[in-house]
Amino acid sequence: MKPNIKGVIQNCVSNIPDQEVALCLSSGMDSNSILFELLEQGKKVTAFTFTMEGIESRDYIHAKKNCETFGVDLVRVELPNSVDKLKEAVYKLARMGAKTKADFECFFPFLYLYEHSALTQKYIISGLGGTGHFCITKKGMIHFRETRIDDFRNSLYSNPNYSQKKLHEDYCEKIGKIHIMPYMTQEMIEEFKGTQWNELNKPKEKQAILDSYKDWFTKVKVFRHTNFQKADSGISTAFLQLVHTDLNKGNFKTPKGIYNDIIDEVNSQQ
Predict the structure, then answer these.
(1) Cα gap 207→5, rounded to integer Å
(2) What is the domain range of residue 18?
């Protein structure tokens, strides 16, 4: 049994009333599958991709190449690396409701996307949340892959802020945008129920997505899953600078303790 991934994405895109759409694009399969559907349906796509100051990450390099392949406009969203800007972002994120290290570091780039002067489109679409269906994290592979894969998915998608979903929805409502996340719709969740690891990830990781847009994927280079803020993006490394600042009152070795202190500080002021 294969999930009808294309059918769900197709419905999400066809329900966008505007012709012009903003796409959050990386070098991964999830966001590129959405790019292909947008192109199939004749939408006018502007892709946005993130990269830190002074870094051209793999996501940026290959998003750019893929956009050139299909004649899609690309906007480079450059993220600041200065400690002052990072401090400012951490406090802003805490006030928005960020609670975990992933909330702070994964939502950070979107602060700059949502405020970018080139983001004139009302509708934004992304591949956020797609990886959870495939049970390819270390925890999933060790404890859930063989017999409890639906339990693994349920634990993720029952969280209203999985992949920062609620933060995105709340912030977009505030600024008059709508962020569509096809891989986190209830329709997509239902499609994956009962599907097993091997039928989704053989012969390649996320094979079910590759099969959904087979011809399109032959034209571009995409990469396996990597946690958004890690790899060569430079985001986690940038935030590590906070350990050496006056924010580190607890002498923490990682920023996690700093985030918790700032959450407590912000909550005490409310």
Answers:
(1) 11
(2) 5-84+102-226
Q: How many CB atoms lie within 10 A of CB 108?
A: 24
Give me the helices (H) in 17-56, please.
29-40
Query: 44 has which bridge partners?
Result: 20
**Residue 238, domain member (yes or no):** no
Residue found under tokens 């002074």 = 54
Give the total number of structural domains in the chain.
Answer: 1
Q: What is the Cα–Cα distance from 49 to 25, expressed in whole angstroms? A: 5
- Angstrom distances, CA of residue 154 to CA of 150, 183, 186, 220: 6, 14, 11, 32
Domain assignment present for residue 53? The answer is: yes
Neighbours of 74 (CB within 10 A): 18
Alpha helical stretches, state H, the chain: 5-14, 29-40, 58-70, 83-96, 101-114, 138-143, 149-157, 165-175, 186-192, 197-201, 207-212, 214-217, 235-240, 256-268
Please tell me whether residue 116 adopts helix, strand or coil conformation: coil
The CATH number of whichever domain residue 32 belongs to comes to 3.40.50.620
Cα 149 to Cα 144: distance, rounded to the nearest angstrom: 5
The answer to whether residue 182 sits within a structural domain is yes
State pLDDT tens for residues 70-99: 999 999 999 999 999 999 999 999 999 999
Residue 268 in any domain: the answer is no
Over residues 117-152, the pLDDT tens digits come to 999 999 999 999 999 999 999 999 999 999 899 999
Residue 202 confidence class, pLDDT cut points 50, 70, 90: very high
Residues 249 and 226: their CA atoms lie apart, in Å, by 31
231 band by pLDDT with thresholds 50, 70 and 90? low
